[in-house]
Write a structure and sequence with these properties.
Length: 295
């Protein structure tokens, strides 16, 4: 299974996409130790269980909260797994990173990280929670956009949030000055992190500006400068993604979803949703069910 995830080939149709996996049940305890080449950049985060792997000449024993960046074209050998293994895995090509990163400096820093010898990083609880939340955000955005032929803007933003958080982690845990970043970038990271956690309940720029201890105007200027989008647009895109995810649950009424997303009533939610999608919530739900049944 690990080989299937890490050895995947990206064809021309996949060149504008990444692959994201959240594995909750991996029960195999031994392996035949076959080696294979990792075809893409891959970032592995262990949630529970343990795994012993070899990348090139380096052997790593990984357990809960361990993070490992696996460079493209690395020779990978899986030696042993113990207990119930749960993991997060994100893979992408160099072309994807160049095409969708907010800045060349961000990509350059990532390349410097992958050029160094592979070694795991044991994350503190708070850093593990933040990074795993970003994995989940990317996963659900990817799942929601599977049928689309191109990356959505919110997926692009979440991918950059992942790169920013990765650079922060390497700066913190390795004392690597190359991976340090500017105050403006740190503010954007903080904003996107808080947004991923609170977007269902908090819709105002003022809330997020307060969370990062700056004014709304300053936050908007910085976010616009770094991402090319203003704060209001990014918040609305996050709310819209949450709404689409909730609408896939047929047990939830439109009124219940409106309440969950802190709209004053179902009507105001409907106006918001139709303005951004050209469909009413009920129409979108019906179309989603039809697409699912047609697979």
């Amino acid at each position: 299974m690990i080989k299937d995830l890490l050895h995947i080939e990206f064809n021309d149709e996949d060149s504008d996409r990444m692959h994201i996996h959240i594995i909750k049940k991996y029960l195999i305890k031994t392996t035949d130790k076959k080696s294979f080449v990792v075809n893409n950049f891959s970032i592995l985060l262990i949630k529970s269980g343990s795994i012993r792997i070899q990348i090139k000449d380096s052997t790593q024993q990984m357990s809960a909260k361990d993070l490992l960046v696996i460079p493209k074209n690395s020779l990978f050998t899986l030696h042993e797994m113990k207990e119930k293994l749960q993991l997060f895995l994100l893979s992408f090509t160099p072309e994807f990173a160049f095409r969708h990163s907010f800045s060349r400096q961000l990509v350059d820093t990532f390349y410097l990280l992958t050029a160094k010898p592979c070694r795991k990083i044991k994350l503190e609880e708070k850093d593990f929670v933040v990074l795993s939340l970003i994995y989940k955000l990317i996963y659900y955005l990817h799942k929601e956009a599977e049928a689309q032929s191109s990356l959505t803007e919110l997926q692009r933003i979440s991918f950059n949030l992942f790169l920013y958080e990765l650079r922060f982690i390497f700066a913190k845990y390795t004392n690597n000055p190359v991976s340090a970043f500017s105050r403006k970038e740190r503010i954007v990271i903080q904003f996107l992190t808080v947004l991923a956690i609170h977007c269902r309940k908090q819709h105002s720029a003022k809330f997020y500006a307060g969370a990062v201890f700056i004014t709304s105007g300053y936050l908007n200027r910085i976010v616009k400068q770094i991402t090319g989008k203003n704060v209001k647009t990014i918040i609305e895109e996050a709310i819209l993604t949450e709404a689409k995810n909730l609408l896939q649950d047929s047990q939830l009424t439109i009124a219940a979803i409106a309440e969950e997303l802190e709209f004053s009533n179902g009507s105001s939610f409907g106006v918001f949703f139709k303005r951004h999608t050209s469909f009413s919530p009920s129409e979108y739900r019906s179309n989603t069910i039809e697409r699912f049944n047609g697979r």
